[in-house]
Amino acid sequence: MKKGFRYRVALWLVPVLFFWVTRLLFATCTIRVHGQRHWDKVGTRNEPAIASFWHYSIFFILYYMRKKNSVAMVSASKDGEFVARVVEKMGYETVRGSRKRGGVQAIKGLIRHMRNGKNAAIVADGSQGPERVVQAGCIVLASRAQAPVLPLIWSCSRYKRFGSWDGTVLPLPFSTIDFFYGEPLVVPAKIKSDGIEEYRLLLEKQLNSMYAEAWALHGRTEH
Fold this sequence. Notes:
By secondary structure, the chain is an alpha/beta fold.
């Protein structure tokens, strides 16, 4: 009973704390935006786009893209419930699923939301990795929804790196954050397995090229 009560309290408290702590934290940071023209190309249309980014970058992505009328795919695991609550507190709709659990239904859920005009947000390397290796789900979604993929990357001058599989990064107060929109990737409709692999590799190459460019601004080869 006590364990269940603590879990319910944590489910309420963690999203509230995350919401206010990140707002205060990022308010102290200098944010430099690169490639704004790419967002202007797809983000100002009446048709939705798919934001795709590496898992390490999720903290700032959630904050920066919170007002973009988006639906996010979140892991169906128990730990994913905390992430889902945080994402919803930030202003996103959510669908639950991952490569190993409920992925097909999650893709269908994203498409339904996109047909109602929402942009989609999906972690390119998934909830379990491997790190900075694009999973096929983003390409499948882009093909079925006929929406462009908009790659997103950011780097920063000072940060805390956590010991997770992806090395999740949280910028430190008063750091400089460089945020990049990439060239939109258009995926053909009704794509087959060989085409999925072709475009998966294209997106992976683009994200990693942007990653190298972004971190080079701060004298680093990786985060």
